[in-house]
Amino acid sequence: MDIGYFLELLINGALTGLMYSLVALGIVLIYKSSGVPNLAQGAMVMISAYLIWVGVSLAGLPMIVALALAVVGMFLFGLLAERLLLRKMVGQPIIMIVMLTLGLEIFLRGLGPGLLGAAPKSLDLGIDLMPIIIGEVFINRAYLVGAVVAVVMIVLSLLFFRTRLGTKLRAVSDDHVSSWSVGISVERAIGISWGLAGASAVAAGALWGSVQGVDWTLSMLLFPAVAVVILGGLDSIYGVLVAGLIVGILGSVIPGYVDPIVGGGTRDVVTSLIILLTIIFRPHGMFGREDIERV
Predict the structure, then answer these.
(1) Is the dihedral of CA 123, 127, 131, 134 positive or negative?
(2) Whole-number Å distance between alpha carbons of 225 and 161
(3) Which residues partner with 139 through β-bridges?
(4) How many domains does the chain fold into?
(5) What is the pLDDT of residues 24-73, one digit of tens each?
(6) Does 294 map to a domain?
(7) Counts for the chain of helices (H) and strands (E), in that order
(8) In which band, very low, low, confident or very high, does the pLDDT at 188 lie, cut at 50, 70 and 90?
(9) CA-based diameter of the chain, in Å?
(10) pLDDT digits (tens, 9 = 90+) for 260-284
(11) Closest CA to 94 of 25, 38, 172
């Protein structure tokens, strides 16, 4: 067994998994704040990357300014999505809300390439393309930067939910009616949660856009992000961190050894198995809250 090859798969897989966590974080933020499973997060990441590309390549803005404007734009998008779409779904079955977010995902997935073209667009964050070499192990610098950003965002999210506003958002997720009764604006809280998810999508869009280019395929990051969320727990920010590492490592190490034998394509199989096995044996995930209801 080539230890160097195994360590390279392990380390880069862990870093990739943390970048998946950055996408999954937006899903958890919305669910933890409003109780709504958001299946539009992949497209929100894609749109964020397009906004940054437009700011840098078409408007000629400095990268830091384009990033700041994208954060503002995606936060406003989140508020607008709540105001125009989700607010009209109050009182509807949760499956209808899930279908609404899926429809939004499909709409946005076609909107970006439809307006700006389907050809991949490069996004340069100034990260050195040369890998870090430690012995026989090659570490992707972009993945390393993305992993650091992911950990920082997750820690900030944990701290945010300890603030007064974060407590209100958790209360809204637990019970809309009780939150209304004590004077919490449920609509505003849900809008803020979507705005925060939009802002976190900018970080994911910038990093993933710099790694694989800006095009519609960025929306497909929803798939591994869903695996991270289901494994870690829909309402657990800790779970995003731990599950991201697991999904990333398994999705790197197993295909690294199996793909040469079967001809490729096992990464998606591994991700699918993680989702299926978690739902079967631990539906609330590793760290998710298990709600028991009287029926």
Answers:
(1) negative
(2) 21
(3) 132
(4) 1
(5) 999 998 888 777 888 999 999 999 999 999 999 999 999 999 999 999 99
(6) no
(7) 11, 2
(8) confident
(9) 63
(10) 999 888 999 999 999 999 999 999 9
(11) 38
Residue 56 lies in a domain: yes
Q: How far apart are CA 53 and CA 63, in angstroms?
A: 9
CA distance 120 to 235: 34
Q: Say if CB 9 and CB 256 are below 8 A apart.
A: yes
Distances in Å between the alpha carbon of 230 and those of 37, 77, 138, 258, 277? 11, 25, 30, 25, 10
Q: Domain for residue 37, yes or no?
A: yes
Q: Which residues of 54-85 are buried (b: 16+ CB within 10 A; e: fewer)?
A: bbbbeeebeeeebbebbbebbbebbbebbeeb
Give the integer Cα–Cα distance in Å for 256 and 161: 38
Residue 290 within a domain: no
* Residues in the chain, overall count: 295
Question: Are the CB atoms for 173 and 35 separated by under 8 Å?
Answer: yes
How far apart are alpha carbons 60 and 225 in whole angstroms?
32
Q: What's the CA angle centered on 225, arms 249 and 250, to 5 degrees?
A: 15
CATH number of residue 22's parent domain: 1.10.3470
CA nearest neighbour of 249 among 4, 6, 56: 6
Domain that holds residue 67: 3-118+127-281
Cα–Cα distance for residue pair 35/29, rounded to 1 Å = 9
Separation of alpha carbons 240 and 229, rounded Å: 6
